[in-house]
Design a protein that fits this description.
Number of strands: 23
Family: Belongs to the glycosyl hydrolase 9 (cellulase E) family.
Largest sheet: 7 strands, antiparallel
CATH topology of the largest domain: Glycosyltransferase
Keywords: Signal
CATH class of the largest domain: Mainly Alpha
Number of domains: 4
Strand order of the largest sheet: 17-18-21-20-19-22-23
Radius of gyration: 27 Å
Signal peptide: 1-22
Oligomer: single chain
GO molecular function, one term: cellulase activity
Distance between the termini: 69 Å
Protein name: Alpha-L-rhamnosidase six-hairpin glycosidase domain-containing protein
Length: 759
């Protein structure tokens, strides 16, 4: 299947002559004049260089030779060619023609496994591609790149105001100066020096949402892609594609009338339970609930109008139900109708039961009652047959201590049962059940087992859990944060030691946490008995990197060492930067990044055609990440090995966004009630439209009850804070001396609070 989405990469324009400074990795072929042989009326050569996946250019076997000549409109030193979306298997020949007319062959072979065609830098005014296929062949899009003596890798979308801002110049020497300028200009707005291949401009916090570039000086100069700096920019550009993926990737495309489950499978046409290619360890409900709870006002129907269809579900939800809540109910309805019983799918339903009081405005109570009765009745059952893929043999009795853990597939992360048991402990108390302590004891014993048995120095316990590594630290942090007085004595020490190992393994030019000291990326996960096993290989890990902020920020929540916490925040930002292009390839992880992610300049090398997820037309896919061969820095490494998007990568990314939301959110009460007035100030990622003054709603409770809502206004437009001067006598309840007013934003375990006592 060919990707039909329109690819419009807004690259930094202008001619890139080899003796001029320009943005890195500009596609020199895009939009340039093309001549082809043979000429076929419905097969124009411009389709080969227009950057649009929807326009197709083919090579034909009937021609003596298919020849495409691209005039680069200038002389360039080129060293890389990518045939993006090329489907051929026959020999390609590529020639460079210099400005003097000399023609030299630079490549003659089949497309390499790494997809990227590389050669020694050579001067070229024109590029010639010759191809004679055995069958009609889609040629894809031609990308041509100049040799970069001083590459500069940044987060292509940009950086948050007031937050960490770092870039990597992998060939720069210590002490090399760098400048930050407005995009396309030369006036210095900020300057610094490179240290250990990294430039830090965190202190540069301009107002507004303008585009900037980094210029690295020295013997060889380099310039980054344009990027923006704005309040909560990364959250703003992430919410929409994260949600769109979860809408687009659903089984039956949201029409559950086609849901006919059997004992063997859920009937999803392309494998999965509720999302295509989902597995029992995709953790969709946790990710959706945590993302919503971490910033509920960002997901209202006013902020995000409904895009998906929800046909065949048993309950009709109110019109004002946020799409993220509709997705939560969609999953719950499928799981209950399918009578899921796998360990990890039961855990997803535990999250729903815990979260229900905050969802009751939208989801009928009958759904909660059905889920409650079903889940409590099977929690201790051993059967896990509905449904499972790549599983490890185990009992689904969630009262036990699990002494096994998953492989690099990510199918059974240590500690997965801790939070679900703690949540059912709270639900059981809420429901007046007599067995609440069973759930508490199960969570406690599992936590103690991890403290006593997991060695963070063994990478199998950390990055070796691939995209679901975050589950372990999420679980330990949750326990300590919510039950500090009842937590095992060595729990905080265990969390701290994990953080120290993570920091130690991240001391490199990318702020990237490595697998171990001498290996960057998770190893090949196939068994050694597999004939295709590569002991020196690596595996696709977008989810591990995109989800890593959840792990480090969960640890940060409970630690007190400021230096360590600051480093964890730096790593959280660094890993999102890696997803958005600050990596050895200089590419965003999404093949369709230029369409799906605001500000992205160049997407991933390739996407998988077909596959169980059928993701070619799905928005917000994280397709690939740099493999071992590309680190520490190899511009010719390309993308060897397997590349494929996956819902399990995206749910890990959503968890990373959720924990980042919580980390950024702060609520304060300013004043001492003179004249009965106080000032409420909220910092939260709600600057979703930089042109509009937006609002935020916070809850107010008196002595822990009598909730009401107060609306705060953004300080102008494109601002960091929302404020309101509140006269407490305007609140809808009577206040007397000693009453405590508690103001809060966020829901459940993602709530931030501030209180004041009436005196």
């Amino acid at each position: 299947m060919i990707n039909r989405k329109l690819i419009i990469c807004c690259l930094f324009t202008g001619l890139l002559f080899y003796n001029k400074l320009a943005a890195q990795m500009l596609n020199l072929a895009k939009g340039k004049p093309v001549s082809i042989e043979p000429k076929i009326s419905d097969n124009p050569g411009k389709h080969f260089v227009d950057g649009d996946d929807a326009t197709l250019f083919y090579a034909y076997p009937t021609a003596p030779m298919n020849e495409i000549v691209v005039d680069l409109l200038g002389a360039f030193y080129i060293d890389r060619v990518l045939l993006r979306g090329f489907r051929g298997t026959d020999t390609l020949r590529i020639y460079a023609i210099s400005s003097a007319g000399e023609k030299k062959e630079v490549f003659a072979d089949v497309l390499p496994a790494k997809k990227l065609i590389t050669f020694k830098p050579i001067e070229a005014h024109k590029l010639v591609v010759e191809y004679k296929p055995k069958d009609k062949t889609l040629m894809g899009e031609l990308e041509v790149f100049a040799y970069e003596p001083q590459p500069v890798m940044v987060n292509q979308s940009g950086y948050n105001t007031g937050a960490v801002k770092r870039f990597t110049a992998p060939l720069a020497a210590d002490g090399t100066p760098f400048l930050v300028v407005k995009a396309g200009e030369n006036k210095t707005l900020f300057e610094g020096t490179i240290k250990d291949k990294i430039g830090d401009f965190s202190a540069f916090n301009p107002t507004g949402s303008l585009a900037y570039q980094v210029i690295v000086k020295g013997k060889d100069a380099g310039k980054s892609f344009p990027f923006k700096i704005a309040p909560y920019l990364i959250e703003r550009v992430s919410y929409k594609p994260a949600m769109q993926f979860m809408i687009d990737d659903r089984c039956w495309y949201g029409n559950t009338n086609s849901f006919v489950p059997t004992v063997e499978n859920a009937g999803c046409p392309f494998l999965g339970v509720a999302w295509r290619d989902s597995h029992q360890f995709s953790f969709e409900l946790q990710a959706l609930i945590n993302l919503y709870f971490s910033n509920p006002d960002a997901f209202t129907v006013e902020q995000m109008p409904i895009e998906g269809q929800y046909i065949g579900l048993r309950k009709e939800l109110p019109e004002n139900t946020p799409e993220i809540v509709r997705l939560i109910y969609y999953a719950v309805d499928i799981y209950l109708r399918g009578k899921v019983n796998h360990t990890l799918l039961k855990e997803q339903l535990a999250y729903f039961l815990y979260a229900y009081p905050y969802l009751s405005e939208y989801i009928p109570k009958e759904v909660y009652e059905e889920a409650k009765d079903y889940l409590f009745s099977i929690w201790g059952n051993t059967d896990n047959s509905r449904w499972r893929w790549h599983d490890i043999e185990h009992s689904a009795d969630l009262f036990q201590i699990y002494t096994i853990m998953g492989t690099g597939k990510g199918q059974f992360p240590p500690g997965h049962s801790i939070v679900p048991n703690l949540m059912l402990y709270e639900v059981a108390k809420r429901e007046g059940r007599k067995d609440a302590e069973r759930y508490w004891n199960a969570a406690l014993k599992q936590t103690v087992w991890i403290i006593d048995n997991l060695d963070w120095n063994d990478p199998a316990t950390t990055k070796g859990q691939r995209m679901n590594e975050y589950v372990t630290m999420q679980s330990l942090s949750y326990f300590f944060k919510h039950y500090p007085d009842k937590a095992p004595k060595k729990l905080l020490e265990k969390i701290r030691s994990w953080a120290e190992v993570a920091v130690k393994r991240s001391d490199n030019m990318w702020d990237f946490r490595k697998y171990k000291e001498d290996k960057w990326v998770i190893p090949d996960i196939k068994p050694a008995s597999d004939p295709t096993f590569n002991p020196n290989g690596s595996f696709n890990e977008p989810g591990n990197i995109a989800g890593f902020p959840a792990a480090v920020l969960a640890a940060k929540q409970v630690l007190s060492d400021k230096k360590l916490k600051d480093k964890l925040e730096q790593l959280a930002v660094g890993h999102i930067d890696n997803v958005f292009g600050r990596n050895p390839t200089g590419r965003h992880y999404s093949y369709d990044a230029c369409v799906d992610f605001e500000g992205a300049d160049i997407g991933w090398f390739q996407e998988l055609e077909g596959g169980a997820g059928m993701l070619q037309t799905v928005r917000g896919v994280l397709d690939g990440s740099p493999k071992e061969d590309v680190y520490q820095y190899d511009p010719y490494g390309g993308d060897p090995g397997h590349t494929e998007g996956w819902v399990t990568f995206n749910t890990a990314w959503m968890e990373g966004i959720a924990y980042r939301n919580y980390d950024l959110t702060a609520l304060s009460v300013i004043g001492n009630l003179k004249n009965k007035e106080i000032t409420l100030q909220l910092a939260a990622p709600l600057n979703l439209n930089p042109l509009v003054q937006e609002q935020a709603k916070i809850r107010v409770a008196k002595n822990g009850k009598d909730d009401t809502v107060v609306v705060l206004e953004e300080e102008g437009v494109d601002a960091l804070y929302f404020k309101k001067v509140l006269n407490v006598e305007e609140l809808p309840f009577k206040l007397i001396k000693g009453d405590v007013l508690t103001f809060s934003y966020g829901l459940g375990h993602f709530t931030k609070e501030a209180s004041i006592t009436i005196n």
